[in-house]
Protein 1
Amino acid sequence: MPRCPMTHPDPAMAPKASQPVVIEARNVRKSFGHTEVLKGIDLKVHRGEVVVIIGPSGGGKSTFLRTLNHLDAPSAGEIWINGAPFGFALRNGRAEAVSDAALSMQRRQIGMVFQQFNLFGHMTALDNIRCGPVQVLRRRADLALADARRLLALVGLADRESAYPAQLSGGQQQRVAIARALAMEPAAMLFDEPTSALDPEMVGEVLNVMLDLAAKGMTMVIVTHEIQFARKAADRILFMEDGMIVEEGHPARMVDSPKHERTRRFLRLVGEAA
Amino acid sequence: MWDGSTFLHYLHSGYLLTGAAISLALSIGAMAIGIVLGTIAALMRMSQRRWLRQPAGFYVWLFRGTPVLVQLIIIYTGLPQIGISLGVVASALVGLGVNEGAYLAEIIRAGVASVPKGQFEAARAIGMTWAKTMRVIILPQAARIILPPLGNSFNGLMKTSSLASVISLEELLRRTELLVQVKFKVLELFCVAAVYYLVLTTLWGFVQQWLEARASRSLSATPGDARARPARIALDNAALSHDAS
Ligand SMILES: Nc1ncnc2c1ncn2[C@@H]1O[C@H](COP(=O)(O)OP(=O)(O)OP(=O)(O)O)[C@@H](O)[C@H]1O
Ligand SMILES: [Mg+2]
């Protein structure tokens, strides 16, 4: 028997589980050519919940995250956001793809932060952040400006508003990228290995911003190899391998006493085994 | 015998200067048509949909595979046979513009392909439509790559515009020929024309340098160098303000 501290009982009974579901994946599958990368994934993320996905390279973590905001359309299965179909519409009980304009409208609800930051290279930090509100939400210019400045301050970069991405360190770029996603006031945020491309000394500044967000109640799905961060920030950890969720549970239990041999082996490999 | 005074005289003749101005206007007009057609064709060729890709591919293949002189003659003297009469100026503009578009399509496509895919995904992730992503994020960044070959292409176009003389458009070369027919100063007059073309392409060279320097400033700035703060190029306040598209 693995030792189970269980400070929190089963995640299904954690308080956040009584909150409404923000993101729901139903039997999501994704194939590239003949290879099936996602083999039927179900997930419900409740409001305010922080879900961390860990797992070995090539297991489909990025692909799954990208299906959640339809950067990759699922080959089968459905995504629901706040109880509404996402990227498809139901007509006579049948799912039909929606137009690019409609899908873009729906995407505003989900923020995404990338491993490579992907800040717009021709825009200053400030313009990166207000670009979405102005161009997509058609927010008034003065309101967007004030909001962008507030977000820059939130991520600790108030003094770099006119810097271009090439003038910022990796950690600073990633913090601007987080502010850019926040500026859309999303219902949830997706993070795909947000610190993997960073020099070690910059990992902390980004993780701190994320901890801050979690404390403020932001709904987040995070793919990361930072196990200690996951243990601290997550309400739930999923272990994903070969396109399937092998095991999920409370962070302390997952990290300290994983049930599955594969989870144990993975944690040992990343140096976090109990 | 080289007649120096004739050469100098026609170097500032209003008749030939007007011809040079017409050549320049024709080049600018054809370039504008070419940029519009080239951008549309480039975006179509990058589409996932075959029914968009194929017509654009056919267009590029057809107009890059045939001489622009033949295209001009077909448009001006051939098309009236099937009831399409464009007139001299329109024929020249369409002929040169459509041909230019086929070349620019390749240049623009390469420029767009040089923008990292992550830029596209980040724009989509904040809810931009495909068209807005192209206009606000991708094309402004592709412009840096596109500008040098585009500038060279315009240099070429100013010289190619002389082909419009064969459909009797009175641009610089045509006016020179007309003048030669009455003055018989072949060498002197064609040298004047050559000087005019040289002046046009040289001036354009300066404009091109200025444009390229402007466009490359934002991305070549070195990290941490606060003084190298560049002028915003693509996202000025106009681009940020609400637009109707
Ligand atoms: N666009 C694509 N075309 C073809 N195959 C793809 C594509 N995207 C991902 N794959 C494949 O899908 C599998 C899962 O990839 P994915 O990037 O989702 O894994 P991951 O868990 O995020 O890995 P990592 O930890 O290395 O980021 C891999 O085998 C990958 O080669
Ligand atoms: Mg990945």
Protein 2
Amino acid sequence: MEIDDDLLANSDAGTEDDDEFVELAPEQTSAMDGMDPEEFPYDVLALEQVVTLMVDIIKEVRNVVEIPATTTRILLNHFKWDKEKLIETYYESDPDRIFADAHLISPSRKVAIACSKREIKPRYSVKENGEYVCEICYASVPEQLMSGLECGHRFCISCWTHYLTTKIMDEGMGQTISCAAHNCDILVDDETVMKLLSDSHVKLKYQHLITNSFVECNRLLRWCPTPDCGHVIKGQYVSDKPVTCRCGHTFCFACGQNWHDPVKCSILRKWIKKCDDDSETSNWIAANTKECPKCRSIIEKDGGCNHMVCKKCRFDFCWVCLGPWEPHGSSWYNCNRYDEDEAKRARSAQEKSRAALQRYLFYCNRYMNHMQSLKLENKLYASVRDKMEEMQKHNMSWIEVQFLKKAVDVLCQCRQTLMHTYVFAFYLRKNNQSIIFETNQRDLEQATEQLSEYLEREITQEVLRDIKQKVQDKSRYCESRRNVLLKHVHEGYENELWEYLDNI
Amino acid sequence: MSNIALTRIQREFKEVIKSDEVKNCQIKLEPFEDNFTHLKGEIIGPPDTPYQGGKYTLDIVIPETYPFNPPKVKFLTKIWHPNISSQTGAICLDILKDQWAAAMTLRTVLLSLQALMSAAEPDDPQDAVVATQFKQHPEIFRSTASFWAYVYAEAPRNEKMKEYEEKLKQLQEMGFHEKNSRITALSSKNWDLQAAMEFLLP
Ligand SMILES: [Zn+2]
Ligand SMILES: [Zn+2]
Ligand SMILES: [Zn+2]
Ligand SMILES: [Zn+2]
Ligand SMILES: [Zn+2]
Ligand SMILES: [Zn+2]
């Protein structure tokens, strides 16, 4: 996603903000508006807070079982953070066995066997005129710059830092980092690691590594899926509700996917698996170029709007169905519904399987198309920002031009919803309610395409005052259509009106 | 090359040159070109092994992050050993992978490789064919390994080799001209002439 901080510089003036996290352009919090009346209570935790939570549990266990903190953390990982089970097993069976199972050395025995029985023995630091020689870098350093663990192996602090950094950044090691000497199994404990590291990046990565299994084993905690974000959402119970991370990303608390209302997590999972399995066909669909249905010249899609105009022959057509655009603007917009009757006409087995593929392609095409458009809308944020500046030069106040950004937000939400309505529809068995759903879907899609068209094309042509009214009306209409659609699906869930097709 | 890596390598050079092993002509280390990132090592096949008296050249590449990551080492001299690829010279040895420690040196690497030549670990093989022979036909393995040492590493000749040379000659007369493939085929097939021939046929 592209980051557009200029646009937010104004609107964000009041919020407390740490520099580390740049907010993404769409105002994601509004994604929850009108979606669900009941609030889902959750907290966004920074990495340090997750570490604290984890350390608290480690402390609880250590109150009962007297073993070092880092060893306890690794044992807890081994027991999937079920502390009762750890304590119970610890007292009911042989602790040495537990340590062995977790690939740990019993803390009582470890110093004794710190040095190996192998023929190549690590050598100890040699004193040279009052200073020590570090066995790694061969530099001569004063005693206070040497460091080591209970095994007695000592290296200079700078080498320790290098060593830990290589382990953490290159090898992704966090669970168990042992002493830098050869064949020494003594663990470097978490506190020492943090003390010896100076780069905050490496520190964060280490904290991420040591808390990862703690978070993954805990049903009430979920990592934000944004790469390198490192925040964790803590819910009070597990539910498929949207949560918004401090980085601005909104996702489903139950499954971690992008927020996917109205489709359920399990259905979405099925769909994503199907898309992965059929990735070759879907790649073909996702391709960004198509031929003009009239003159066959290659047309590239460069915006989110599905109304295409061929640069060569000026033919207006729909990107999705490649049909003429004309009917799409009128009441008999008919691009969202796959005609099941037509499909039924397929008789032979071969035809049936082809029909199944075509049915899948139909939904996949539309799903991918909205996803693609959603990505392209980020470009729209930039052009809308230019427009907003221009309008401010024409005697409109800052407040007065905010409607444009708001309209792009609405557009993105609608695309996100539409995208998932096709997943929902793909698995839906036809009944009276599904027909109402398809009507709602069609209305929302039509309105969304019109809003997209306004924002992408007409905005550059029309008189400023006129366009404001038009865009505001259309975006309000879109919002209301979206709410109607979602409400209908949710009511359907409550009253068990939805039936799903099996074996697809 | 990072500062630590360069200081380390230069110091290690001095260390190796002064060491007893160099005096006894057991190991050798020299730069490939003028820089210290690419080195040439040499180890002598240890006594009481099929490699006894052989001279083995090693290719050593020092990574940017040395000594926090291990050097990349492979055999340039062809060798018949369960933990070393008979085709590429790649080595399977724990200290060149996850068991590497920053306080280890090139000297310890060379000595560990000598130790590996004395005590193979067929349960963690790099060359499955050699490892199988090692386990199922230890006698054939020993004589094959010493034959390779004689052919490729200038190790002394022994009686058994006459028979092997005879079989190689027979294969050559059948029209298989590439010497290394003939040796590999016969070695892999426990010196069964018929099986080696089938192995070589396209
Ligand atoms: Zn050092
Ligand atoms: Zn140690
Ligand atoms: Zn985040
Ligand atoms: Zn979900
Ligand atoms: Zn055209
Ligand atoms: Zn269409």
